[in-house]
Amino acid sequence: MNDLLAAQVIRELARDSGLSDADYTVLVVLSEAPGHRMRSIELTRRTMWSKSRLSHQLTRMEGRGLVRREEPADNARACDAVLTEDGLRRIETAAPAHVESVRRHFIDLLTDDELDMLGAVTERVVAHLTETGEHAAEP
Amino acid sequence: MNDLLAAQVIRELARDSGLSDADYTVLVVLSEAPGHRMRSIELTRRTMWSKSRLSHQLTRMEGRGLVRREEPADNARACDAVLTEDGLRRIETAAPAHVESVRRHFIDLLTDDELDMLGAVTERVVAHLTETGEHAAEP
DNA sequence: CTCCTCGTGTTGATGCGTCAACTCGAACGC
DNA sequence: GCGTTCGAGTTGACGCATCAACACGAGGAG
């Protein structure tokens, strides 16, 4: 189910807006951040991605003009990711259709009880993964 | 949860047995097939993969000596995938640890009720995906 | 028989994710 | 001040997945 569902939703996102799911994730997080900007390290925390993955992703998105990298004045070794005008427009256009896609293929098919239970299960599994010495991101 | 859980289980599989999840899938299906052999087209059906993806996967696995390709005598345009001795040994060694990994990180954390519910949800969502003209594999 | 279409399978280009190795500035001990 | 360690970020190589284009045999229509 996971594979099929994710594949379908991702395919619709790509078809409708030309964004990958990774693009979408970064754009959403940045669009909600003050100043549409965020430290790289904070982005890896929010997305649960590795530094490497984020770096590659930002490189690709920078090439497509969705984000910009800036070195913050107060810390030379850090790196901010900043949403561009274009990136903001893209996420604002894409979001409604994507939300609707997830609803249509998943949320609307479940009862409230099922959603509640799924939330509980998710919380438990994630807690177990993170506490059992699981650092997916960095060794 | 999906992403984290899958990442963890896949990482353990790779660490313990040197197999990717795609490798594992193919090996399991083939090991259960009569004669440890199966038509490519049947493999795509079982795995819900595209022809292309399967072909690339078989090429890689063939390079590593896990499977062999054979042209069946009765049909020149078809193609059988056959498990090698090595492939069989690999899957037999890898399977127990993988099953245990899934149990430990997921199954054992859920109650029977939750598992039942998840089964029902999965069935419903997959049915919706497949009936709504969704052919993930081929356009 | 000839041509056409269709089903089966392969290939190449491209994007994505991971791993290991690396750079480099900052903070700390002395 | 000076070296050492540490944390943040980048890079390159590789495996994997997708898409579009192609190859080619089988089966049917005429």
UniProtKB/TrEMBL annotation, chains A, B:
InterPro entries: HTH_MarR-typ, MarR/SlyA-like, WH-like_DNA-bd_sf, WH_DNA-bd_sf. Residues 1-127 form the HTH marR-type domain. One of its GO terms (biological process) is response to stress. SUPFAM superfamilies: Winged helix' DNA-binding domain. Coiled coil: none annotated. It comes from Haloactinopolyspora alba. Pfam families: MarR_2. One of its GO terms (molecular function) is DNA-binding transcription factor activity. This is MarR family transcriptional regulator.
